[in-house]
Amino acid sequence: MGFARGKYAKFISDRSGMAFPYSERVKEWNGAVVHVSEFEAKHPQLEPLQHSADDVALKDARPDRAEPAVAVLLKPNAFKSGASGSAVITVTENNHGRTTGDTVRFRDVSGFDGFTKAVLEAAAGYSITVTGTNDYTFTASAGTATTGNIFGGGNIATAGPVTLSA
User: Fold this and answer.
1) pLDDT for 116
2) Considering only CA atoms, which of 88, 160, 74 is closest in space to residue 125?
3) How far is CA 105 from CA 28, 64, 128, 143, in A?
4) Partner residues linked to 137 by β-bridges
5) Are 59 and 147 in contact (CB under 8 A)?
6) What gap in Å lies between CA 20 and CA 151, rounded to an integer?
7) How far apart are CA 12 and CA 143, in angstroms?
8) What is the 8-class DSSP label of residue 148?
9) How would you class 57 by CB atoms within 10 Å of its CB: exposed for 0-12, middle for 13-18, buried for 19 or more?
10) Rg (CA), the chain
11) What are the C-alpha distances in Å from 73 to residues 61, 84, 95, 156?
């Protein structure tokens, strides 16, 4: 069984409520039956394109790690004794980045001006006082300068943390 063509039939528009010829009706995306002059296509933003998510993970990624503290080779004769009878020693270490109160241990130091190798290489290290970008001081645990204002320490002295990671 078929439908009549509705040659003289009218329909009522769902949008305007007006009567139009039945043959000029169209159905919108939302199900409303309207006249062709009232037809509105679906807005593109109502059907957004499907986008896949951005890749976030990296293949074979390795997390950042904190570098272990290492000993730094000092320039030759980087130690300078204070005035005669003083236990204060100044160390020159370029751009050391240390702060007052840090503990520094010296290794491979040669004795000079009344300070022995054993005193300068104390296992507990020394608490330093920063005096500049390239200098800091510490007070030796034993001994005092015999002459004063003498450079020493040798050519392969290092400054670093009390314990070194292997």
Assistant:
1) 94
2) 160
3) 83, 27, 10, 17
4) 90, 129
5) no
6) 108
7) 111
8) S
9) exposed
10) 43
11) 33, 27, 12, 7
What count of other Cβ atoms lies within 10 Å of the Cβ of residue 162? 13
Q: Which among 111, 112, 113, 140 has a CA at the least distance from the CA of 124?
A: 140
The count of other CB atoms within 10 Å of the CB of residue 122 is 15
Task: Assign 3-class secondary structure to 91-113.
Answer: EECCCCCCCCCCEEEEECCCCEC
Task: Report the amino acid identity of residue 81.
Answer: S
User: d(Cα 23, Cα 8) in Å, to the nearest integer?
Assistant: 9
Q: What is the CATH number of domain 72-160?
A: 2.40.30.20
- Bridge partner residues of 26 (DSSP): 34
**Per-domain boundaries in the chain:** 10-42, 72-160
0.70 cut: is pTM over it?
no
Rounded Cα–Cα distance for residues 74 and 65 (Å):
26
Mean pLDDT over residues 29-40, rounded? 94
pLDDT (tens digit, 9 = 90+) per residue, 112-157?
Answer: 999 999 999 999 999 999 999 999 999 999 989 999 999 999 999 9
How far is it, in rounded angstroms, from Cα 96 to Cα 104?
A: 11
Number of helices followed by number of strands (H, E) in the chain: 1, 13
